[in-house]
Amino acid sequence: MTKPQPLIDNFGRQVTYVRLSVTDRCDFRCVYCMAEEMTFLPKAQVLSLEEMAVLARNLVACGVTKIRLTGGEPLVRPGVVELVRTLSALPGLQELCMTTNGGRLQDLAQPLKDAGLHRLNISLDSLDAERFHALTRTGRLGRVLAGIQAAQDAGFERTKLNAVILRGRNEDEALPLVRFALAHRLDLSFIEEMPLGVITEHDRAEAFISSDELRAMIRREFTLEAAAENTGGPSRYYRVPGHPVRIGFISPHSHNFCGDCNRVRITTEGRLLLCLGNEHAVDLRAALRDGPQQPEAVDGRVQAALQAAMAIKPERHDFTLDDEPQILRFMNATGG
Ligand code: SAM
Ligand code: SF4
């Protein structure tokens, strides 16, 4: 069969980074991410862990060097540690990361480290137990803080906290979160809320706080110096002099980062989403299930689907605050 080709879109951008959603399920119900009552996918529609491994092998064969496991909450998927072990052994995969709500890390941080996971992002929007519970609807702050400690004890380095700040709900948490990150030598990224899915608890436009506003808030207490480095992601990084950590701002509204986009997402159902803010997608599950599987080999149908996808990767997304949501899928179905 023909040799796998690099994944290059019509705008000359090469895809080297894939965010793979291992489940749409979650043990939290964060107010900006999910509705209170959610219907999750039936099992038959969800990729098996073996199918995910086949996809990963095919992606790495095409030059993908970084995979992030996400969800939903990746740690609620049974067998996720085994998946990490399989993927971390793929020659050519330089970075295997995970984004988690941290609620199960107390038990799983060490097994994940032993299985070869390189780095963790842990979501944390509040350091106040009651408010944390209100924002996540089911989460317990104490468990997440213990999970963060367990990740550090297991030897994970450059762990990053992710925080979504909403006006009227947790804007006074920005400074405490920076203090916490500095004290625990953790990187921290603030993410502007994105209009994915219809939620009911707040008006996204009213709750929106721009990265500029957050930086001004943080500068009341800390000096923020723009950092030269970039991790190949949409974050803009700053440093607080005297501290080894980075404070990042992911600003899909106020700073469009599409020009150097190197990433795609794969949903739990095997839809390859070409852009966070557009519906352009290719069905990889059909390519996987349409014929005999060759778990160890590069698969011609999957390769063809990946190349076809490159032709439809949109140039950019455009989130607007007054005309939303254009995207009806929730973040948990998108693979955050
Ligand atoms: N459950 C894991 C977690 O919470 O870290 C991984 C999946 S979650 C969808 C990934 C990230 O997306 C989290 O940091 C979460 O805060 C963020 N997120 C969810 N919905 C969002 C939205 N509508 N806008 C911006 N960020 C969102
Ligand atoms: Fe679950 Fe993560 Fe969404 Fe919160 S942000 S509901 S933890 S998937």
Describe the protein's architecture and organization:
The two termini are 34 Å apart. This protein is α/β, with parallel strands linked by helices and 336 residues long. Helix 3 (105-115) packs parallel to helix 5 (141-153). The chain is built from 11 helices and 12 strands. S-adenosylmethionine binds next to strand 3, strand 5 and helix 11.
Notable features of this structure?
336 residues, 12-stranded mixed β-sheet, alpha/beta, binds S-adenosylmethionine, binds iron/sulfur cluster, single chain, 11 helices
CATH superfamily: Aldolase class I
Structural class comes to: alpha/beta
Q: List low-confidence stretches.
A: none
Shape: globular
Q: What is the count of distinct domains?
A: 1
Please state roughly what percent of the residues sit in beta strands, choosing from under 5%, 5-15%, 15-25%, 25-35%, 35-45% or over 45%: 15-25%
* Helical content band: 25-40%
What is the name of the CATH class?
Alpha Beta
The largest pleated sheet is described as:
12 strands, mixed
Q: What is the average of the pLDDT values?
A: 89
Classify the fold: give the CATH topology: TIM Barrel
SSE sequence, one letter per element: EHEHEHEHHEHEHHEEEEEEHHH
Annotated CATH architecture: Alpha-Beta Barrel
What's a concise summary of this model?
With 336 residues, this protein is an alpha/beta fold. It contains 11 helices and 12 strands. S-adenosylmethionine binds at residues 26, 32-33, 70-71, 73, 99-101, 123, 162, 164, 191, 193-194, 196, 331-332, 336.
